Amino acid sequence: MKRSLIWWVICGAVLASLPIFTSTGTLRIFIFANFLAIFAMSWDILSGYTGYISFGHPFLIGIAGYTTAILTRHLGTPLYISMPFAILLTMVAGTLFFFPALRIRGTYFALVTLAFMEVTYHLLKIVKPAVTGGTRGLTGLPFVVTGAVPNYYLSLFVMLTVGIGLWVLAKSSIGTVLSAIRMDEGAVKSAGLNPTKFKLFAFTVSAMVAGIGGSFYTHYLGSISPRAMFDITFLFTILVAALVGGEHTIVGPILGAYFLTFLLEYLRPYIPGAWRFLLYSVIALVVYNFAPKGIYSIFQGLFDWVGRRMRRGEQYG
Amino acid sequence: MSGIIIQSIVISGFYALIAIGFTMIFSVGRVLNLAYGVYIMLGGYVYYTVVQLAHLPKTVGFLCAILSGVIFAVITYVGLVRRLQNNPIAVEISTLILAVAMQAVMILIFTPAPRSIWPLIPGVAHLFGVSVLKNLLVAMIISWVVLVSLLIFVRKTRVGRAIRAVSMDRKGALVSGIDPNRINLVTWGLSGALGSIAGVFFATYTQLDPAMWVGPLITAVAVVIVGGIGSIMGSLVAAHIIGFLETITTTLITPQLRGVFTLLLIIIILVILPKGLFGREEI
Amino acid sequence: MSNMGSLLELRNLTKTFGRLVALSDLSLTVQRGETLGLIGPNGSGKTTTFNLIMRELKQDEGEIFFEGKEITKYPIQERVKMGIARTYQIPRPFAEMTVAENIRVGIMPDKIISVMTMNIRDGLEREIGKSVGFKQHELSMYPSELSMGSLRRLELGRNMATNPKLLLLDEVFAGLTVGEIAELSELLKEKKKEGLTFIIVSHDLRSLGPLVDRVIVVSFGEVVAEGSFEEVIADEKVKEAYLGKEEDSHLELHK
């Protein structure tokens, strides 16, 4: 455990020193990667671990975003009130709508979450457009900090805090139980544990992180719209980031988010819109089916290999 | 009032068709095929291409649409789902990714702009003093024909009964000499056919749009949850409940709130009656 | 109120699946510390009985008493916490976890805070693992690397971690080598000496015989014989149940 914490510190230090030698443009890419990482991690702690695939994370993120947007834009609420409130509301609303499905089975849960996202998208376009901004959404939202570098550090800070927090949680026995639920929920019951309790816990944590990400992201962009939030594209990006990075690892989604974001940026000038999507889908499908443990496992394999070589070197050296 | 009733009945028949293709795979294969909406999308786009772009007769368009659905479904089953049989989570995710991929393909071929298709039969009919789109009426009639045929097929033919057997008890069916793989193949092919037929109607009723695979999928999901698994009767009843609910909402309140009460209904059912109205078991 | 002193009592249990009657008015009692054998031909309702005791299924009629308390309303995990545990015909280990981790899941209390802050003595998993016969190096193996005998032992270990009073063993000898059966029998005898109560379902009558104090025979969901192993084996009705009457050898569906 301690050895792994060192890795967090090293990576954190490396990432923190980035602004010294990268341009503002590149920093903004990293900012986006950090937020995607937060979303992907929030997905992973629930869906990666318990196997209850959620297609509703855009919904949760969107609730947080819209709540804080509406509060700050129309009521002038200060950020330090609107954001925590948004996070709380996300947790409450998420539980209210998704818990009935969560306590039954993964398939129901997946379906319900998908349905919610779709309906909310259409709903937001027409319900009280004066408040929600309708199809165009809301703009002119307050920023937490301004400028690329401060925002970079903010996003990095939030991402690392969330990351370490979730990672510690997942490494604890909670992670073991959640994974057990994924492997065989019935056997978990016959081991004397109530899966619903743990699923609810994972969901609440996941919703909280989604809320945190959604609030900060909205106040980084300074705007919000139905298309940005409740979109299959958004869902897809989060899912692929988590899957390609490595499910049920917490670190994997971070790697996946960075990978996907930079792939996006790199390909942008060469490959037009829809082709990129086709490419992601194919990559996602291939990776998911043939290398299901994702980028994370590749890294792990590498470290193991290096470790073994070093030890062998010591033996004969 | 009678307007609402007629509208509801017409829509519901059509919803039932959409839902049946989806439930079949669920009951028999026990997997969630999130790419089901793609059959609907393919049905619509292929019909459009054949009829409006290539100017071939409508029947040809219909047949091509059905064929495209069947082929795509079978390829999905053989290439993807069959390999992931023991991992329902992987199937869920993979079929979703597939659906998004197909959406991208449609965008590439047809551009993201929505397109309108000429109705199968233009004009409006007057039923009991209510005006109903002839197109929709045809959709309903054909839906019922298909559904009844399906019911007969499942009850009377050997393959149909084999499908029911596998849906009730896979191991038992195996022991009785039924090959679940072959049955799955047939079921997926059927699902593809049903979906693409529904797709042609759906496209003429609304619009062609690369994102059109989501809406019907949600409707199918709602029908499954409300009606219960493994019961065609349940799907029919649920389709009508949802059809009525939506028509009442759109007529009396506002058209854009259409899906909301359906969603609420889903939650209520999940809390009170998780098996659905006619379900044999929780999925 | 149930029979004082009995650990488990099933009273008039009935369970049907559609038109198939799996259990029909079945009653039995298990005393503390005894090992009961539950035998009968395929489809006679043995596994269904286990499913009902564990609440993996709910009975249509009848009551279940454990330690004098009626437990029908309690879900699976509550019954496990009360002290009932079972193994499965086809073992259900957590596939991506080691033996030790599997046992750990059994140790865990059903409270989030406790699980989060839990500092299980690393030794506890090892102790339990060893107590069911695992060697040190086997504890870090994965289910895919284990023999059937070890898989059954894994389930047993996971069960023992829940501190059971009553253990339901479903076809626990199936798929084992002769050596593994002998090992397992020794283990069960040991646990019996420690006071554990067992209900064992098995087709392997030869292995079952030396372990049981009493045997109940079910056929078509009903009890057809009860007594010591020797008595029951010699019983005509039992032979009939297994081999079927001459004239009447196919399934008869009631109702």
Q: Which features would summarize this protein structure in a list?
A:
heterotrimer; B: 283 residues; mainly alpha; two-stranded antiparallel ribbon; 2 strands; 74% helix; globular; C: 255 residues; alpha/beta; Rossmann fold; six-stranded mixed β-sheet; four-stranded antiparallel β-sheet; 10 helices; 10 strands; disordered C terminus
> What portion of residues of chain A is helical?
over 70%
- Biggest β-sheet strands, sense, barrel of chain B: 2 strands, antiparallel
> Percent of residues of chain A in beta strands?
under 5%
The helix-strand sequence of chain B is HHHHEEHHHHHHH
- How many β-strands of chain B, per DSSP? 2
**Structure class of chain B:** mainly alpha
Distance between the termini of chain B: 37 Å
How many domains of chain B? The number is 1
Short description:
The complex is a heterotrimer of chains A (317), B (283) and C (255). Chain B has 283 residues and is mainly alpha-helical.
Task: Walk me through this protein's architecture.
The complex is a heterotrimer of chains A (317), B (283) and C (255). With 317 residues, chain A is mainly alpha-helical. Chain A has helices at 2-16, 24-50, 57-74, 79-102, 106-126, 129-132, 148-171, 173-183, 185-189, 195-221, 226-229, 232-245, 251-267, 273-290, 294-316. Chain A has a domain at 29-231. Chain A has 15 helices and no strands. In chain A, helix 2 packs across helix 8 (173-183), helix 4 (79-102) packs antiparallel against helix 10 and helix 12 (232-245) packs across helix 13 (251-267). In chain B, 74% of the residues lie in helices and 3% in strands. In chain B, 52% of the residues are buried. Chain C is an alpha/beta fold and 255 residues long. Chain C has a domain at 6-93 and 165-243: 3-Layer(aba) Sandwich (Rossmann fold), CATH 3.40.50. In chain C, helix 3 (99-107) runs parallel beside helix 6 (148-160). Residues 246-255 of chain C have low confidence and may be disordered. At the A-C interface, helix 8, helix 9 and helix 10 of A face helix 2, helix 3 and helix 4 of C.
Q: How does the SSE layout of this entry go?
A:
The complex is a heterotrimer of chains A (317), B (283) and C (255).
Chain A: H1 2-16, H2 24-50, H3 57-74, H4 79-102, H5 106-126, H6 129-132, H7 148-171, H8 173-183, H9 185-189, H10 195-221, H11 226-229, H12 232-245, H13 251-267, H14 273-290, H15 294-316
Chain B: H1 2-29, H2 36-53, H3 58-81, H4 88-110, E1 124-127, E2 130-133, H5 134-156, H6 158-168, H7 170-175, H8 180-205, H9 214-227, H10 232-253, H11 258-272
Antiparallel strand pairs in B: 1-2
Helix pairs in contact in B: 1-5, 1-6, 1-8, 1-9, 1-10, 2-3, 2-4, 2-8, 3-8, 5-6, 5-8, 6-8, 9-10, 9-11, 10-11
Chain C: E1 6-17, E2 20-31, E3 35-39, H1 46-54, E4 61-66, E5 69-70, H2 76-82, E6 84-86, H3 99-107, H4 112-117, H5 122-131, H6 148-160, E7 166-170, H7 178-193, E8 197-201, H8 205-208, E9 214-219, E10 222-227, H9 229-234, H10 236-243
Parallel strand pairs in C: 3-8, 3-9, 6-7, 7-8
Antiparallel strand pairs in C: 1-2, 1-4, 4-5, 9-10
Helix pairs in contact in C: 3-5, 3-6
